[in-house]
Amino acid sequence: MTKSETKLLKAILYVLHEVDGGQLHELPLHAEVNLLRECTRTEFEAALKIGDTNRWILGIHSKFKGRLWCISDAGEAALLEM
Fold first, then answer.
1. Number of domains the chain contains
2. Which domain holds residue 35?
3. 28, 31, 33: which is closest to 8 by C-alpha?
4. CATH code of the domain in which 53 resides
5. Tens of pLDDT, residue by residue, the chain (82 residues)
6. What pTM was estimated for this model as a whole?
7. What are phi and psi of 70, to 5 degrees?
């Protein structure tokens, strides 16, 4: 993982942490992360994939809202380490 990916993933984890146990749709999540660290859609999706692969974030498919994201306990620990 590059420094850029690490910084972007940290921003994603921070935003999801601030939701306090809630879930965010991908679009508002990208908007909130973009306020902290500017990124393209491709960079954002790559960071989501890394976070999902490491199980730091969980993507849940919703019937009506698309994919919703939340932070896992492992993600909380990763955020503290970063």
1. 1
2. 3-81
3. 33
4. 1.10.10.10
5. 899 999 999 999 999 999 988 899 999 999 999 999 999 999 999 999 999 999 999 999 888 878 999 999 999 999 999 8
6. 0.92
7. -145, 165
